[in-house]
Design brief:
With 331 residues, this protein is α/β, with parallel strands linked by helices. It is 37% helix and 21% strand. It has twelve helices and ten strands. Strand 5, helix 5 and strand 6 (179-181) form a beta-alpha-beta unit. Helix 2 (53-68) crosses helix 9 (278-290), helix 5 (158-169) packs across helix 8 and helix 9 (278-290) crosses helix 12. The longest helix is centred in the first third of the chain and has 25 residues, at 7-31. The chain is globular and about 60 Å long. Residues 1-14 and 17-34 have low confidence and may be disordered.
Length: 331
C-alpha cells in the first residue's frame, strides 16, 4: 500500500527534478551542434612529422571534427613542424595548424608573407624541450655538444629554431661548432640508438611516442637546461620570451625513477587566417575544447587544453569565430 509523500518531501523531489533538468539542458547545450546545419566543405590541416604529437593530435582531431561536421572534409598535410606550419597557413596552403608561439612570433618579426592575416583559435598545450643523449654519454651540458654530431631538427621545424637558439646561448654556432644533422623525431631516436648521432633535440608534448618507443629498447637521459640558461635565451629577442623554465619528469618515459630535469617549455597555438569563415572557426573551436578528454586519452598533453586558458593565443589576436565561441560559453 503506497503512502503519500510529506509536503516537504514533494517539494524537495520537484526541486531535485528541476535541477537535474537544468543540468541536462546545459550538458546538451554544450555537446550539441551550434546551429541547425553544420558547416560543410573542405579544409586543410597542417600537422607535423610522423611519431610527433602534432601528427597524432591532428589525426585524432580530424575524427572529432568529422563527428561534429560530417559534411566537412579535413585533409591532413605532414610537415617539418612549426615554422613550415605557420608559413602554410599564412600563405593559404593550409587553413588550420598547430605551431609553437615562438615560431609564430618569429614569422611575424621576419614579416613573412601573409603574417598580418594570422589569427589564433586556441592555446593548446606546452611543448617541452628534450635534449637527449645515451645514458652512458659524457655529454652533461649544452656546452659539451661542441664538436659533436647533433640532430637539430628538420630545416623548417620549430625544433630547429629552438636548437639553434639554445646552442647560441651556450656560445656554439650550429653551422660551425657542431656537425648538424636534420633528424626529427621520426628518425632521431633510431639514429641515436645506432650511434649515428651523439645527441638530438626535440620539442614536443609529454610524452612523445617516438621517445616512448625508444625507452623500451635503449637507455637514454636528458641534458639539463636550467633557469639561468633560459634567462640567457631571453636576451636573443622578443620571440624567445615565449620560453619558460620548467622541469621535465624522466618518469614520463620511464627513463629514471621519477627524477626531474630542468628544461624549458613553449606554448602551442591552434591558428588560422583572418579570412577563414567565422561560423566554421566557431565550430572548430568548440570541437577542440569539448574533445579534450577523448583526444587526451591517446595524446596525454592534450589533457591540458583548458577553456580558461585557451583564449590566450599570444602573439596572435583571436579569430572572430573563436571569439564568438568563447563569449558564448563565458559564465
Amino acid at each position: 500500500m503506497s503512502r503519500a509523500l510529506p509536503r516537504i518531501g514533494i517539494r524537495r523531489a520537484l526541486q531535485s527534478t528541476a535541477a537535474g533538468a537544468v543540468a541536462l539542458a546545459l550538458l546538451l547545450w554544450w555537446l550539441l551542434p551550434l546551429g541547425e546545419e553544420p558547416p560543410r566543405g573542405a579544409i586543410t590541416f597542417s600537422t607535423g612529422t610522423p611519431r610527433g604529437v602534432y601528427q597524432e593530435y591532428g589525426t585524432l582531431l580530424r575524427t572529432e571534427l568529422s563527428r561534429d561536421m560530417p559534411n566537412l572534409k579535413v585533409r591532413l598535410l605532414t610537415s617539418d613542424g612549426s615554422q613550415e606550419n605557420v608559413a602554410r597557413v599564412a600563405t593559404g596552403e593550409a587553413d588550420f595548424t598547430i605551431a609553437a608561439a615562438d615560431a609564430v612570433e618569429t614569422y611575424e618579426l621576419n614579416k613573412g608573407p601573409g603574417a598580418d592575416r594570422l589569427r589564433g583559435v586556441a592555446r593548446l598545450y606546452d611543448d617541452y624541450v628534450h635534449l637527449v643523449v645515451p645514458r652512458d654519454s659524457d655529454i652533461h651540458s649544452v656546452e659539451d655538444l661542441r664538436g659533436r654530431r647533433v640532430a637539430i631538427g628538420l630545416p623548417h621545424s620549430g625544433v630547429r629554431l629552438i636548437a639553434t637558439r639554445v646552442l647560441k646561448a651556450a656560445g656554439i654556432d650550429a653551422r660551425q661548432d657542431i656537425t648538424p644533422l636534420s633528424d626529427g623525431i621520426d628518425t632521431g631516436p633510431a639514429r641515436l640508438r645506432q650511434g649515428g648521432i651523439e645527441a638530438f633535440f626535440w620539442s614536443g608534448g609529454l610524452p612523445t611516442d617516438g621517445l616512448r618507443e625508444l625507452a623500451k629498447r635503449f637507455k637514454f637521459r636528458f641534458v639539463p637546461i636550467d633557469a639561468d640558461f633560459v634567462s640567457e635565451l631571453h636576451r636573443q629577442g622578443p620571440a624567445t620570451h615565449h620560453y619558460r623554465a620548467t622541469n621535465m619528469p624522466e618518469s614520463a618515459y620511464g627513463a629514471r625513477g621519477g627524477a626531474t630535469v630542468p628544461t624549458m617549455a613553449v606554448s602551442n597555438v591552434l591558428i588560422t587566417r583572418k579570412d577563414m569563415d567565422p561560423e566554421l572557426t566557431e565550430w572548430v573551436t568548440r570541437t577542440v575544447i569539448k574533445s579534450r578528454d577523448g583526444i587526451g586519452a591517446h595524446v596525454h598533453s592534450a589533457q591540458l587544453v583548458d577553456l580558461r586558458t585557451a583564449i590566450y593565443t599570444d602573439p596572435l589576436p583571436l579569430h572572430d569565430g573563436a571569439r564568438r565561441y568563447y563569449r558564448s560559453v563565458k559564465p
